[in-house]
Design goal:
Blueprint (H helix, E strand, L loop, with lengths): L2 H23 L4 H26 L8 H18 L6 H28 L5 H20 L6 H22 L9
Helix pairs in contact: 1-6, 2-3, 4-5, 4-6, 5-6
């Protein structure tokens, strides 16, 4: 990471942590804001991957995987935007599934990183475990009134903290001769 990327990463981490605290303070409209952010993020990410596939990835090996990811993320975004009028238990289950899936992916990435001899696998493993624990909290505390808000804010706090830590971590460069 260069200096600009580090500053951007630290600032985005701080903004994520402030947003989490604001969501906890203003719980009344937090569900709508969380759904709006999730649907906007998934939709933009899906559209970005589809555009990347059209422009470049179709010429790459396994480029169709990027197209499939884009379609799935876009569908998650559309689904998230339609969840505003359903009971909050479904939002909580949806949040639990997202955290469980991302935790499982992080743990599998840890296994791959260790196999290739990387040394940043501990942070990825911790991230995966925390995501799975957050998914379990969603399931265990489904009767508490604002569980989805608290779980989302905990995930946002951790993601912001992880960005700040990643910004200060020393990066290694690999040169191929």
């Amino acid at each position: 990471m260069n200096r600009g990327q580090r500053i951007k990463s630290v600032l985005s981490g701080i903004i994520m942590m402030i947003a989490a605290m604001l969501l906890v303070i203003y719980k009344r409209h937090a569900y709508e804001i969380i759904l709006l952010v999730m649907s906007f993020g998934f939709t933009c990410s899906g559209i970005g991957k589809i555009i990347y596939y059209i422009s470049m990835a179709r010429h790459m090996v396994d480029g169709k995987i990027i197209l499939y990811r884009g379609i799935i993320l876009f569908n998650f975004g559309v689904l998230s935007s339609s969840l505003s009028y359903v009971p909050r238990i479904y939002i909580l289950l949806y949040l639990a599934c997202v955290h469980a899936f991302s935790g499982l992916v992080e743990i599998l990435r840890t296994k791959e990183t260790r196999a290739y001899g990387g040394n940043a696998w501990r942070l990825k493993l911790m991230s995966g475990i925390i995501n799975i624990v957050l998914a379990l909290f969603c399931i265990l505390f489904y009767k508490v009134e604002n569980t989805a808000v608290y779980i989302y804010c905990l995930g946002l706090l951790y993601a912001g903290f992880a960005r700040i830590v990643a910004a200060f971590r020393r990066t290694t460069f690999m040169f191929i001769r």
